[in-house]
Design goal:
alpha/beta; 34% helix
Length: 301
């Protein structure tokens, strides 16, 4: 009897460990930026798209042995349909979504549909009413960005930058006063990454964002990056928490942090920063390759 009790205790412990591991694997950190869309979501921090689907067997099969397989099949069809809809709504850049490119080209549309059909089933639940719920997941970057980002880069060459920030007229100069000589400019720092605090300006995520200075000159964009880095991890990472972004391995040990002043484009994913911050970044870019390697994090509300 004692042996039986010990066996049950051990089995219970193993089940708890498995359950905890599964929960941790699917748990979402509070610092991750997740966009809820329809019957699924886009995790811009972890880089994947998820969709759920629910299926039920036809009434005539209720209670029969093949009811569950038919419900599962219906749930998968529903999940794939939802995943395709969410994927086509992904913002590629500030003006374009995946759907925009898919409408323009049958080849791109077929490629996107093929990627969705290859999505992984990460969970399936058999519910008490006989229905089945299935969750699918596919990467946001990799094969999808290999299709989208090069086209986006080509298209963006034709799009003008946002208008410069208009400043109030300067007050009349004060009477000339002899002033001490200005201090020498600080030495350029080789930063390891860039963090843009874009909270409070209603900024949104995209696969291929751009950063401009107040004069409308590009600070970070397609001209700065290596295509392979952009395809594999996107042109920037996203987070909800500033500290989490600054300590993210993407920007490594010594990133520069700047404040976003406003957004650009209908998708609100292009950002404008101050001229002073832009100058610091440009000075660092002469000695660092962080922009080429897409070592950029953007913090959103």
């Amino acid at each position: 009897m004692k042996l039986r009790f010990v066996s049950i205790t051990v089995l219970t412990g193993i089940l708890l460990v498995w359950t905890s591991a599964a929960f941790c694997q699917n748990a979402i950190s509070m610092s991750e930026w997740v966009e809820k869309v329809g019957q699924g979501s886009i995790n811009w921090s972890a880089g994947f798209i998820e969709a759920k689907g629910i299926g039920a067997p036809p009434d005539r099969y209720l209670g029969k042995i093949n009811a569950r397989p038919m419900a599962l099949r219906a749930a998968k069809v529903d999940a794939y349909r939802n995943l395709l809809e969410i994927t086509k709504g992904v913002q590629v850049d500030s003006r374009t979504t995946v759907k925009d490119f898919a409408v323009e080209s049958d080849v791109i549309n077929t490629q996107v549909e093929g990627l969705v059909k290859g999505a992984q089933v990460i969970d399936q639940q058999y519910l008490s009413d006989g229905t089945v719920e299935v969750t699918l997941r596919m990467p946001l970057y990799g094969e999808l960005s290999k299709i989208m980002i090069p086209i986006s880069i080509q298209k963006r060459k034709e799009i003008p930058p946002p208008p410069p920030v208009v400043e109030a007229p300067a007050p009349p100069p004060a009477p000339a006063v002899t002033a001490p000589a200005p201090p020498p400019p600080p030495a350029a720092v080789a930063y390891t990454g860039l963090v843009v605090d874009a909270r409070g300006i209603q900024a949104r995520p995209a696969m291929s964002p751009r950063i401009y200075d107040e004069d409308g000159k590009e600070v970070y964009g397609s001209a700065n990056v290596d295509r392979e880095y952009a395809v594999q991890q996107g042109m920037s990472g996203y987070a909800r928490d500033l500290t989490a972004a600054q300590s993210n391995q993407r920007v490594t040990a010594s990133p520069i942090t700047v404040k976003g002043l406003k957004t650009g484009g209908a998708g609100r994913s292009d950002l404008v920063i101050s001229n002073a911050d832009a100058q610091l970044i440009r000075a660092s870019a002469e000695n660092a390759s962080f922009m080429k390697k897409c070592r950029v994090m953007i913090v959103l509300d």
